[in-house]
């Protein structure tokens, strides 16, 4: 059973794949919800608490991604290093990955990270030398918070984190998203 990530828990939500403001140019989710496996949800709460102690909030762009949506991304992205093959399940369809950033708790403004979320370009990689030093520090802060809470980074995408044991869980389809209130 997947657990929703909510604003009531102190998160900011910007579920991009429920809008046309994503790399496909069209919504691929019917509902703007973010959900994770209970284990992943608990670790995200730990990261939230660590961020709050620093005057920061976590903004979530994506979490559980139904396998149907994984196919839409697979077809939209030319550089396959930036999207997992749906035939092998990926980690988002297992409810074991999250895409996120850090925001100032007082203003809600995103900390600069050198590229936007889902920027399919070399500069999206952690420690890319073409990213300004201040933005690298923000990425390093996010990395420290997430790794400290039990997450593993994907080194080509500063925004993507997954459970180290992500592949122990089966991929899920759109039927895992509830139709009623969360």
From TrEMBL:
Residues bound to Zn(2+): 92, 99, 160
Residues forming the catalytic site: 157
InterPro entries named in the record: A_A_dipeptidase (IPR000755), Zn_M74/Hedgehog-like (IPR009045)
Reaction it catalyzes: D-alanyl-D-alanine + H2O = 2 D-alanine
This protein's UniProt keywords: Cell wall biogenesis/degradation, Dipeptidase, Hydrolase, Metal-binding, Metalloprotease, Protease, Zinc
UniProt superkingdom: Bacteria
The EC number(s) this enzyme carries: 3.4.13.22
Cofactor note: Binds 1 zinc ion per subunit.
Tagged with keyword Cell membrane: no
Pfam families: Peptidase_M15
Cofactor(s) recorded in Swiss-Prot or TrEMBL: Zn(2+)
Gene3D superfamilies: 3.30.1380.10
GO-annotated molecular function: D-Ala-D-Ala dipeptidase activity
Residues under site feature: Transition state stabilizer: 65
Function recorded in the entry: Catalyzes hydrolysis of the D-alanyl-D-alanine dipeptide.
Entry's family note: Belongs to the peptidase M15D family.
Protein name listed in UniProt: D-alanyl-D-alanine dipeptidase
Species of origin: Teichococcus globiformis
Organism phylogeny: Bacteria, Pseudomonadati, Pseudomonadota, Alphaproteobacteria, Acetobacterales
């Amino acid at each position: 059973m997947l657990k929703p990530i909510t604003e009531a828990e102190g998160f900011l939500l910007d579920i991009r794949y429920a809008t046309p403001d994503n790399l496909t140019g069209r919504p691929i989710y019917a509902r703007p919800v973010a959900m994770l496996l209970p284990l992943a949800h608990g670790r995200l709460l730990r990261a939230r608490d660590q961020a709050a102690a620093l005057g920061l909030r976590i903004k979530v762009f994506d979490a559980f991604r139904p396998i149907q949506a994984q196919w839409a991304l697979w077809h939209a992205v030319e550089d396959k290093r930036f999207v997992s093959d749906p035939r092998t399940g990926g980690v988002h369809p297992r409810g074991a990955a999250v895409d996120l950033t850090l925001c100032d708790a007082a203003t809600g403004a995103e900390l600069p990270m050198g590229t936007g979320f889902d920027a399919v370009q070399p500069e999206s990689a952690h420690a890319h030398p073409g990213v300004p030093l201040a933005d690298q520090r923000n990425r390093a802060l996010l990395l420290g918070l997430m790794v400290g809470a039990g997450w593993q980074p994907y080194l080509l995408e500063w925004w993507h984190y997954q459970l180290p044991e992500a592949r122990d869980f089966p991929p899920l389809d759109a039927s895992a998203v509830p139709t009623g209130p969360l």
